Amino acid sequence: MKGFSMKKIFALLALTSLLTSSVFAEDFLAKLTKGALSDTSPGVKELSLEEMKQVKGGYITYLKRLSDNEVIA
Description:
Bacteriocin, signal, 2 strands, 38% helix, alpha+beta, two-stranded antiparallel ribbon
């Protein structure tokens, strides 16, 4: 598997495990914050389908090769 490192494979497995285990959580926010926040806390609102479609955001990463042994992230 050229291009895949053990670190990438482990990260993918960890993410998959986190997502599959949290699918069955009744209150994901409470579970994530150990009860500090909940989906019933003041100011927390469940978004409708239309509101979810309007959410914008994301995270972009890139690598740029400077030379044979230098990479900038």
